[in-house]
Amino acid sequence: AAGVIQSPRHLIKEKRETATLKCYPIPRHDTVYWYQQGPGQDPQFLISFYEKMQSDKGSIPDRFSAQQFSDYHSELNMSSLELGDSALYFCASKFGRQGVHEQYFGPGTRLTVT
Amino acid sequence: AQSVAQPEDQVNVAEGNPLTVKCTYSVSGNPYLFWYVQYPNRGLQFLLKYITGDNLVKGSYGFEAEFNKSQTSFHLKKPSALVSDSALYFCAVRDLTGGGNKLTFGTGTQLKVEL
Fold first, then answer.
1. pLDDT one-digit tens code per residue, B55-82
2. b/e per residue, B58-70, with b = 16+ CB within 10 A?
3. Minimum distance, in Å, between the CA of residue A45 and any CA atom of chain B
């Protein structure tokens, strides 16, 4: 079965640079979530989209922005990168904004800021 | 706010023995609870969920979880552990605050199954 695709899988950037992470949800899934998992930490919710509109916002820095496109893929744009942004970034998708369906996670993008 | 707590950072169990990974929850309203597993350098894999109905929920890879409303717990169990079950396990709760349907995770429990 098709899974959530994230690209790139690994990314190395320097401080103050920008990065763009991409997420391709499971076909027919219309809701996308972004999570950040720091070293030894649990995943923390950043932002979510439903039908191309932002549906919820968590602890996402103002330096970050995201959007969902007409084909439901999503991009997380990160600017003025800081060392503390080094983390594993997960995208998850599900069908429907509400409801009880579980979220399916991608393999993550490991961002290292040097 | 919705939250879950995993009181154990690590659980060690011998292969073939039963395992339990603990999770307690604090929610307003009906709890929608999930268990995910994370292998090194991998994404989170869904194991099972509790929405309503039977308190014993069966999931993937032989795992099950018992929902206990009086104890506000949702412990993950498996009758006979395998070395390949060694991984990081997260309990999560559906969090509707903010209008979305995000997951709030516990801090994770590292399960180590030894021969």
1. 999 999 999 999 999 999 999 999 999 9
2. ebeeebbbbbeee
3. 7
